[in-house]
Specification:
There is one protein chain. The chain is α/β, with parallel strands linked by helices. Helix content is 41%, strand content 30%. It has one domain: Ribonuclease H-like superfamily/Ribonuclease H (Nucleotidyltransferase, domain 5, 2-Layer Sandwich). Strands 3-2-1-4-5 form a 5-stranded mixed β-sheet, sandwiched between helices. Helix 1 packs parallel to helix 3. It starts with 5 loop residues before the first strand and ends with a helix.
């Protein structure tokens, strides 16, 4: 039986204004091979939460096969959504406990589909606290945001 590859996914989003121009980034590491991949992107009119979600979507989407993923994020919104809230939202037809539509439902639905493909464990890291991969993601996300603003 083939073993499932283990990877580490570090993500971050950045927004100037909320809403405003924003960027997302991820660093994906495959410890067994030592390989590493990073990517970033941006949108002109978005929110910080959307960029945090997009970073995870893009990182998980970069995986070519089912993987054991250690997800590291400084976003409680993303981590609690994935670990605690999503199943309830789905059971209520993508509504909150207050019967309101879930914000960013389009992205949460994409994340739900990606979550089904992988075995994910969740780790919170304090943002802007000298965590090397989180700092790298922040640099990439800010650079992507700044690049789109200059166009």
């Amino acid at each position: 039986m083939a073993t499932i590859p283990s990877v580490q996914l570090f993500t971050d989003g950045a927004c100037s204004g909320n809403p405003g121009p924003g960027g997302w980034a991820y660093v994906l590491k495959h410890p067994a091979s030592g390989s590493e991949r990073e990517d970033a992107g941006a949108e002109l009119a978005t929110t910080n939460n959307r960029m945090e979600l997009m970073a995870v979507i893009q990182g998980l989407g970069a995986l070519k096969s089912r993987s054991k993923v250690e997800l590291w994020s400084d976003s409680q919104y993303v981590l609690k959504g994935l670990k605690e809230w999503m199943e309830g939202w789905k059971a209520k037809g993508w509504k909150t406990a207050g019967k309101e539509p879930v914000k960013n439902q389009d992205l949460w639905m994409q994340l739900d589909a990606l979550k089904q493909q992988h075995e994910i464990t969740f780790h919170w890291v304090r943002g802007h606290n000298e965590h090397p991969e989180n700092e790298r993601c922040d640099q990439l996300a800010v650079a992507a945001r700044e690049a789109i603003v200059k166009k």
